[in-house]
Amino acid sequence: MAREIYVVGNWKMNHTLDTCTSFWDDLEGEDFHPNVRAGIAPAMPLLHISERKSTAPIDVYAQNCHEASSGAYTGESSAAMLKSIGITGVILGHSERREIYHESDALILAKMKHALSADLQVIYCCGEPLDIRKAGAQNDYIKDQLEASLLPLDVDQLAQVCIAYEPIWAIGTGETASAQQAQDMCAHIRSLCTEKYGKEAADKLHILYGGSVKPANAQEIFSQTDVDGGLVGGASLDSGSYMELLQIAGKLME
Ligand code: PEP
Questions:
Q1: Which domain CATH number covers 84?
Q2: Which of 111, 137, 159, 205 could make an SS bond with 67 (beta carbons 3.0 to 4.6 A apart)?
Q3: What is the pTM of this model?
Q4: Cβ(171) to ligand 1 under 6 A?
């Protein structure tokens, strides 16, 4: 079955209002392939750029949300707040949140349930560290991660989730997983979802690869059977290279 290709940029803590605005200006009026889903996840203070949706068809994602709907949580934002300003979804489970902010699988699952109940899409990230990959234990590692923080969802919740496989050793390192490694893990993830949710639901699921995706390697990675696009850090910061990624995805959809 033909799934759309997602190209979602995770800007992390980069860009300010000026540079964010000129990025959107650069993409204004661009016509992307209808089956390519363009998304950018700017930092919280820039999320209002979602107001530009009518001039540039880019979905805006948040990089985090809290697991409660409101309350005394200084510095935090709820899913309902994000929804109220036109945000499409939220990235959860990113390895930087897991490692730097010690987010556990239990917390990630709580955040996912909260975001889904507020009708946000979730881009759920999973991925193994280098020592696990070197030991050849990556399939079991990802299975454990999914069992703890994804597979407890029901099939209706899963329909609002996009999974991003992001091997930690390939994030921001310039080292990309080979297209075959990306395919193998995305196929593994799809088969775990098939076991839990059935073939129909798993076939509809979008599974992205993330880890040093750039225009030079995107075509090979995005054309893998079980890879439905990319979650892109560094190469999404520049409008030119982001646009190239969208064009590569568009060509694959022709
Ligand atoms: C990311 O952090 O989600 C990511 C994939 O970063 P990069 O593309 O820079 O490796």
A1: 3.20.20.70
A2: 111
A3: 0.97
A4: yes
